[in-house]
Amino acid sequence: MRIFRQLSGFFSRLPKRKPGTAASNTSLPPVWALRGQSLDQLPGRLPASQRSHFFTMPEMLDGRADFDLHVPHPRVRGMTTLDRAAFNREVVVPALSVKKDVLQQAVKSMKGLLLQRPRVKRIVDDPEDEGRSLILLDPRRIPADYSLGQAEQEVLKSLDVSPEIIKYNLELTYDNFKVEEILQAVFPEGQEVTTAFSRVGHIAHLNLRDHQLPYRHLVGQVIIDKNPGLTCAINKTNIIDSAYRNFKMEVLVGEEASMITKVKENYITYEFDFSKVYWNPRLSMEHARIIDLLKPGDFLFDVFAGVGPFAIPAAKKKCVVFANDLNPESYKWLQHNCKLNKVDQKVRVFNLDGRDFLEGPVKETLAQQLALEDRKHTLHIVMNLPAMAIEFLDVFRHLLDGEPGSADLPMVHCYSFSKHDDPARDVQEQAEAHLGISLEGRCSVGLVRNVAPHKEMMRISFRIPAELYGERPSQVQRTFKSQPLNACVPTKIP
Q1: CB 350 within 8 A of CB 381
Q2: Averaged pLDDT, 402-413
């Protein structure tokens, strides 16, 4: 009975037969009135000899007529190896039969009702009349009685087009479904679907959760299929290495040899081996924010430079740049990118531990610059290694010696992660603890990005306090202990 009721609802929406073409029994429900007829006699059906792929019964799934364009076939549920053919199915869509000589005018009048699906033609040949075409309409925009509005009917009447809507069996394939629709159909019902990824040149970088890992190869292939230009998909499998800033990864689709990629950020091109260096496209705004602070002639000391997203645009801006990275691969690609962008003569590149870089080339250059009485340029130190950069701040307790020639001491921009309920306060207190001095009223803490639930990437910026100039560590510590810890001014990136 349940199936009959569902069929009854479906048949009631089919075009009504003209009076006198068939006997009717209004005393019985529609489905029972049709029981004595053969399949070819049902309303809206063509004789078997003339039947084509339209005017046919819709596909029956779970005992119901299926009109949904957005759901792949249920047989794909639980699939872990992609089988594109399994997504093939037929659905019923409404259509208008129109003479080809008025087709364009009719399409224009139906603009708001046209079918909208990836790679689906909205105009197809009418298999029953080569002089006519079928305009496919979106079933979600058509009333339940399959009738058009008065305005549309009047336009069609002026074109001598019948407003009667017919049923068209549309064949859908894997190509006609979106990423989210495919994954929702494959994953267990109610399970969270992830479609987000970072694009790094031709590489899709995914960060799948544990419950999604059984489907990881399928997810990677779907992402590549649906995003032109991608040829490789990888999944992060571990935390970033604290020393070399590269994470372990699993190649889901593609070859490991294809990890060398090219990206463009803020109009600058970078090349690198993504499996051996750190690169995060979500930091492009932060890179630009720091570069916007610089003026031609300023000095930039990049302690953890990576492949150059701070150093190279700073050099392009005619700043004096010292760039360092401990990772030999980052150092190699940093040199390569300096040459690629024609700033290799403007950037001094180092392959040192961050502490050695600060206590060596940076300290020496700062001593020279701070001794100048009429220096007009600004000194900036960038420390973008959020997992541990804040631990290097103790270097500034004894980095500056003698008497400054000007009051313009170096600006420091240090990055850190925080899982605290008040991440700005947390990062401030960490910085003060390593500096051994209060930053009350002389720093800003900004949110860079949300890394994970309850984990933020923060930036603290401050000018090296004058109390640290020429002080011994023990003297600085006593000064710090005598001052209260007050919150820095929190800021956010626009």
Answers
A1: no
A2: 76
